[in-house]
Specification:
Belongs to the aldo/keto reductase family. Pfam families: Aldo_ket_red (PF00248). Keywords: NADP, Oxidoreductase. The chain has 282 residues and is α/β, with parallel strands linked by helices. It has one domain: Alpha-Beta Barrel (TIM Barrel), CATH 3.20.20.100. Helix content is 37%, strand content 13%. It contains 10 helices and 10 strands. Strands 3-4-5-6-7-8-9-10 form an 8-stranded parallel beta sheet. It has a two-stranded antiparallel ribbon with strand order 1-2. Helix 2 links the parallel strand 4 and strand 5. The radius of gyration is 18 Å and the shape is globular. It binds NADP nicotinamide-adenine-dinucleotide phosphate. NADP nicotinamide-adenine-dinucleotide phosphate binds next to helix 9.
């Protein structure tokens, strides 16, 4: 394996490089909480920030990026169109609003947040238009299952660059990952820490002890070694640093294989949101 760093990237199917590690901002409160988290992350060397219109913190993300002094083109910025804005014209408008909030004239990756029934195809057409206009350097989807991707791929000439999905050692979505790899779609792992709900799992704490690392670091390293893009969220300075301190060790092939057996279909999102079984996303 090549030596990975905090700034290592994966080349997406349109040639654009996405940093393999980023800061998540879901439930980071608008105002100083989000602003400080993004400032600290950028100071520590993070170069990828994940937000969404839904999170209500795009303005703080934008302000932190502007104040960081780091050239905009060195930062990979992701946002998403929320469900209420899906449809062709409304998606174009939603992107304009996000750009205003983020104080930028482009995003690096624009995602369809959820595969909304009846609207997602029109939304994707808008994503293609946004990409053609250069307002997003890449466009992709989120929470798409194999069925949603099959439907999309049979209806478009533009293959999504990424699919952002819930993924952790306790939710190892192997078939979906393999499908995405086969079709050249980068997988981004969200809730890679299972929202801190499984950090005391004895298998994880034992593995952490073995490597002299924290349970969070082991979970993140596992995702990284599966060639996923990983976007843990924290608003605490010490954890933002802890989560990024995973580039000085490597899980052995045996331990990766061991962790691959830990799947228990552990979703942190509520059942009504689970894209694999909720009629909401049919
Ligand atoms: N596309 C989607 O539908 C979708 C859905 C969910 C999430 N996401 C994206 O993915 C990002 C990450 O997912 P997530 O926020 O759901 O969950 P996560 O990153 O798995 O976990 C975040 C939680 O873990 C805590 N935490 C962080 N680092 C820790 C550490 N080292 N030790 C102990 N606790 C730690 C955080 O608290 P503190 O902040 O207090 O440290 C927070 O409560 C989101 O922020 C968002 O950007 C996307």
């Amino acid at each position: 394996m090549d030596t990975l760093t905090l700034q290592s990237t994966i080349r997406m199917n349109n040639g654009v490089e996405i940093p393999r590690f980023g800061l998540g901002t879901f439930q980071s409160k608008a105002g100083e909480e989000t602003y400080n988290a993004v400032r600290w992350a950028l100071e520590m060397g993070y170069r990828h920030i994940d937000t969404a219109a839904l999170y209500g913190n795009e303005e703080d993300v934008g302000r932190a990026i502007a104040d960081s002094g780091i050239p905009r083109e060195e930062i990979f910025l992701v946002t998403k169109v929320w469900n209420d804005d899906q449809g062709y014209e409304s998606t174009l408008r939603a992107l304009e609003a996000s750009l205003r909030h983020l104080k930028t004239d482009y995003v690096d990756l624009y995602l369809i947040h959820w595969p909304v029934k009846g609207l997602r195809h029109e939304t994707w057409k808008a994503m293609v238009e946004i990409y053609k206009q250069g307002k997003a350097r890449a466009v992709g989807v989120s929470n798409y299952t194999i069925r949603h991707l099959e439907e999309l791929l049979s209806n478009t000439e533009l293959v999504p660059a990424a699919n952002q999905i819930e993924f952790s050692p306790f939710l190892y979505r192997k078939a979906l990952l393999e499908y995405c790899v086969q079709h050249g779609i980068v997988v981004e792992a969200y809730s890679p820490l299972a929202r801190a709900q499984k950090l005391e799992d004895p298998r994880l704490t034992a593995m952490a002890q073995k490597y002299g690392k924290t349970p969070a670091q082991i979970a993140l390293r596992w995702a990284l070694q599966h060639d996923l893009v990983v976007i843990p969220k924290s608003v605490r300075k010490e954890r933002i640093l802890e989560n990024a301190s995973i580039f000085d060790f490597e899980l052995s092939a045996e331990d990766m294989a061991e962790m691959d057996t830990w799947n228990e279909d552990y979703w942190t999102i509520s059942e009504s949101y689970n894209p694999e079984c909720s009629p909401r996303w049919e």
